[in-house]
Amino acid sequence: MKRKAPLLTPVPFDDSVKRPPTPQRPVRSRARSLAMDAHIEPHQHPWAQFTYCATGLMQVMVTQNDRQTTFIVPSTRAVWIPPQVQHNVVVLETAELRTVDLDPSVTPAGWTDCRVLVVSKLLRELVHALEDSQPGPRDDAIMTLAADEISRADTQALGVPMPHPEHGDKRLRALCEAVLRDPAEKSQLKDWVAQVGASERTVARLFRDELGTSYQQWRQQAILAHALPLLARGMPISQVAAASGYASDSAFSAMFKQAMGRSPSHFHVRSSQ
Question: Which residues of 10-45 are buried (b: 16+ CB within 10 A; e: fewer)?
């Protein structure tokens, strides 16, 4: 049975004339408080953006190179969005959203693809400091250090890529959508392929060719995307593990910690900060 889609509340894109970064002020930070199920509709802009939630949880969907990717982003992670990449945001848990816009003069070389970055404590404080800073030597120093800290941030595979709805293989998209609806239903690729009318070898090739990953790697990202909102909403870890297809809490926790660098309890609502 398909999960019901939430009723989303559209919120306007911030297009104020003072927003765009400039060579004189190349790093600009803005804060927004957004309620659960708030939706910033698809848009793009000519500058790069680093976006994360100081608190809460968000889903960022991007379309790039004929591929759609969904990122589930907790407060310890951020999404890097290059210039002119269409994206939209859905708030999964009430959030303090932070967007950092970067002028091309300080954009790291070669960062042309979306990626998930680990937000260090220093970077978090620099982003907050930029929100109320005024032009001057202190502002210049903070912007320089923030840009450098972003360029040094560790990356993490947290995106769930999807075939393009028009140009992608329909069999692969049908399988991906089925797994996303219920990642616990089946664990092996061979168990899924019969219902989409393709061989296991064919579907494995489609994952490599269209999504650039193996089925098992893709499924792990799908499980994390499924589990993070459940943890944020306070579901007991044992139930999240079962809903993710794991027979034991320990196996789920080991996978989660290896992927996220922290245990599930860190992202559980009762353990959030």
Answer: ebeeeeeeeeebeeebbbbbbebebebebbbeeebb
**Mean pLDDT of the chain, nearest integer:** 87
pLDDT, residue 271, reads 41
**pLDDT single digits (tens) 122-136:** 999 999 999 888 889
Residue ranges per structural domain of the chain: 27-156, 165-271
- pLDDT tens profile 239-269: 999 999 898 999 999 999 988 888 998 887 6
Task: Give domain 165-271's CATH number out of 2.40.10.340, 3.10.50.30, 3.40.50.300, 1.10.10.60.
Answer: 1.10.10.60
Report the distance separating Cα 114 and Cα 187, nearest Å: 28
Q: Do the domains 27-156 and 165-271 sit in the same CATH topology, yes or no? A: no
- How crowded is residue 187: how many other Cβ atoms within 10 Å of its Cβ? 15
CATH class of 27-156: mainly beta
Q: Which of 170, 185, 269 has its CA nearest to residue 222?
A: 185
pLDDT tens readout for residues 148-168: 999 999 988 778 998 877 777
pLDDT score for 239: 93
